Amino acid sequence: MREESRPRKRKHIPVDIEEVEVRSKYFKKNERTVELVKESKINKDLQNYGGVNIDWIKALKPIEYFEWIESRTCDDPRTWGRPITKEEMINDSGAKIPESFLPIYNRVRLMRSKVKTPVDAMGCSMIPVLVSNKCGIPSEKVDPKNFRLQFLIGTMLSAQTRDERMAQAALNITEYCLNTLKIAEGITLDGLLKIDEPVLANLIRCVSFYTRKANFIKRTAQLLVDNFDSDIPYDIEGILSLPGVGPKMGYLTLQKGWGLIAGICVDVHVHRLCKMWNWVDPIKCKTAEHTRKELQVWLPHSLWYEINTVLVGFGQLICMARGKRCDLCLANDVCNARNEKLIESSKFHQLEDKEDIEKVYSHWLDTVTNGITTERHKKK
Ligand code: SF4
Fold first, then answer.
1. Residue nearest to atom 6 of ligand 1 (CA)
2. Could you read off the pLDDT of 117-142 as tens digits, one per residue?
3. Do residues 213 and 157 lie in contact, with contact meaning Cβ atoms separated by under 8 Å?
């Protein structure tokens, strides 16, 4: 029989930015007040198109449309350098915000503002633009309706697939539409309907489950014509009625296709990190959907879009599922899951002048960005 584990002694770590209770993942807290609850009224209202006028969006010219989407879903890491204040942390449900959220999230945002991660270069949301650029299709020539479709196809290809493979598959379909079907805009609904399913499967064979995904894409193309006026749906029920599209990609598609922030896109990184930091109940939240619902209860709506990109990049580069870099992590003074041995053995920890924040960041940047492109974030 296993011996009953004894509580570990933890030394007190002073927190230099904001007072925060440092929680241990090894101790279960009884005082947790945030419970899995049904989505609040505000969430329901937001799903009701979130005040977004769909007809107005449909009428936008390409450049106006892309500006609108950019204004709603900005992915520029430089905007994450400014810390969020307590005053900005307002939610409409009145639910308690975990005390550790702001200290940890502000540090993670700061790290993300300094380094470029895989999701910034080749995430799902980049695919239509990347592929169009590669094929020489100027963005002002892309009909927003086709952009939305291309985004949806990118998300369908991305399930359980690495970003670069998904990008290659999207490129293959685009080139086929351009060269064989002679469609100047690349992927269009008409093009997808014309491609035979086995041909489509062959074009996307670099992604996982390519035969199944080819079938989903063909069925989706027909459903869009039959039920959605040949455009992508603008509510989550419509998006989820498409084969092969789950909530994670559904909410992202609404965000990037319509500028509609109706839910948080919770992927494996967001799910894992939110549980690790006890921002959601790690016992109750067994799936990403549980985490999304619990997160939406208390997270201010203004962060619903960015939290995905912020945490995904962080989970890809610093706080990975295996091989966390607590030694390089700027949140290691407030994180409940930090590895003390790693921190103590790091050069970063041994800096003499820890008050000199510029020096600390400069040392951190030199170390963490070894081999990662950071040119655009380097100080002039
Ligand atoms: S890298 Fe370590 S210190 Fe940083 S968030 Fe992850 S577990 Fe915590």
1. 319
2. 877 776 666 777 778 778 888 877 78
3. yes
Over residues 187-195, mean pLDDT: 96
DSSP calls for 255-297: HHHH----S----HHHHHHHHHTTSS-TTT--SHHHHHHHHHH
> Hey, what's the torsion of the CAs at 320, 321, 323, 325, to 10 degrees?
40
Left (φ > 0), alpha (ψ -120 to 50) or beta: where does 36 sit? Answer: beta
Please provide residue 270's backbone torsions phi and psi, each rounded to the nearest 5 degrees. -60, -45
Integer angstrom CA distances of residue 188 from 104, 151, 201: 43, 11, 17
Query: Could you give the CA distance from residue 319 to residue 321 in angstroms, rounded to a whole number?
Result: 7
pTM of the full structure = 0.79
Q: What does the alpha-carbon distance between residue 163 and residue 159 come to, in Å, rounded to a whole number?
A: 10
> What SS3 state is found at 213?
helix
Angle, vertex CA 352, rays to CA 100 and CA 373, nearest 5? 65
User: Half-sphere exposure (CA, 13 Å, Cβ side) for 131?
Assistant: 32
Dihedral angle computed from the Cα positions of residues 266, 270, 272 and 276, in that order, rounded to the nearest 10 degrees: -130
Whether 324 is in the pocket of ligand 1, judged by its Cβ within 6 Å, is yes
∠ CA 332-334-335, rounded to 5°: 65
Q: Count of CB atoms within 10 A of residue 28's CB?
A: 11
End-to-end CA distance of the chain: 61
Classified as helix, coil or strand, 195 is coil
Please give the distance, rounded to the nearest whole angstrom, from the Cα atom of residue 48 to the centre of ligand 1: 37
248 catalytically annotated: yes
